[in-house]
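Cross-posting from the modeling subforum.

Setting up a comparison between two proteins and wanted a second pair of eyes on the formatting. Protein 1 (sequence, then structure tokens):
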Amino acid sequence: MSDRFVRPTRLDTVFNAAVAALTRAGLPLAGSRVLAVRGRSSGEWRTTPVNPLRVGGDRYLVAPRGTTQWVRNLRAAGGGQLRAGRSVEVFRAEEVPDAEKPPILRAYLVAWAWEVGRFFEGVDKNSPEERLREIAPGFPVFRLRSEGRR
């Protein structure tokens, strides 16, 4: 497990706020959701926009900036909510081992490189499997198991 973290720029902060506002209003950008997870110290709900990804029959959350606060909170809580408008999906999360990440990272880059590609340090959807294995420890990935909607 790597402690890689890329601090968001001002532009990232503005973009994330806009995506979160649209998603909360029920207008998610390209399938985005607002992740809600309990803070590991405060117990209060913390939210951030995320890009869920479906690979095969499973859904995932990938952390393109590395070990962010939402990653730490999700590890501690073991689950959370994905919100879009009034729709709330409760889920459990299981962290994916590094050895299983390459195909998920590749699929994530196919779907979301236009938004998050700069965080992947010169790696893209066409990078060799070996290179994806090398960077895998720096990109936390969680498999989501739905517990239903509220």
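Protein 2 (same layout):
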Amino acid sequence: MSQVHVYKHNRPFELENGKIIQDLEIAYHTYGKVNEKKDNIVWVCHALTANADVFDWWKGLFGDNALFNPAEHFIICANIIGSPYGTTHPLSINEATGQPYYLSFPQFTIRDLAAAHQLLADHLDFDTISILIGGSLGGQQAMEWSIAEPGRILKLILLATNAQHSPWGIAFNESQRLAITSDRTFFAKKPDGGSKGLKTARSIALLSYRTYETYAISQQEISLDKSDQFKASSYQNYQGEKLVKRFDAFSYWYLSKAMDSHNVGRKRESVENALHRIKAKTLVIAINSDLLFPPDEQKYLAKHIKGADYTEINSFYGHDGFLVETGVIAKAIGIFLKQVDSDKDVITLHKIA
């Protein structure tokens, strides 16, 4: 059973741009118990629209009978700033006005998300994190944290992520924000503002999460006579509506901006110099069909993080493969952890599956 907690920070939280969030609240889920040595902590950084209940969205890797299970590990996942799942976000009440922030919420970066994790770890009195893991935007957070506090993170697992968000990724995010802002209700200061735009934004995002081959097979038409109402069209509509029911346009807009901001080299001389700061034993996992975070971005990480291991997963699912191919990913991580924990040289894993 997971436990849901909320940490209330009683001091101003300063963002990278100098702006302040007053009375920051951080929602987080925990599973299992911390052992006496505090050496069984697994900290998960979640992706763009996920939440802190990692057992819900990363099944097969996390669960009672999975590689990361509460019988052996203390597992924690904190909801990020800007996300509508319990942590302070644009629809939270601004105490200065008594109304939701909406678009007056201060803009934040991936580095700010990592700083909030550090704050929570301090509160929980965790001097070290045994394993820090994240994929996509979660990987960006894990990387920033490992650079900011290299002595705190012992083992680092990065999946389908990058050291600096690419022009390609930024272009996808900007197209989604254009869709959101084209919905005039986004500026109407209503909690459901921008919903139609958010539906379209999600449809755009899906094209970057999957591949031509994914759609060609999963949305293939059986009838040769159809000229409208295609499966692919229904799928895009369904997925857009599904997100609208569980998310909001304001959080999506801000979090996509945060992803664009990701650049570990900012104010650190260079990206390479920043990656050299990481001291954790690191495994970098790429998805061979990932269009949004191509394998070359993961190879770059492995090249510049000292002693990092690299493995590439064959997947039909594109970027979403890091959430779907949990059996193969668990196998790769299990081998890596066994080698690291036995103090042997980590052997390059090459391709799996």
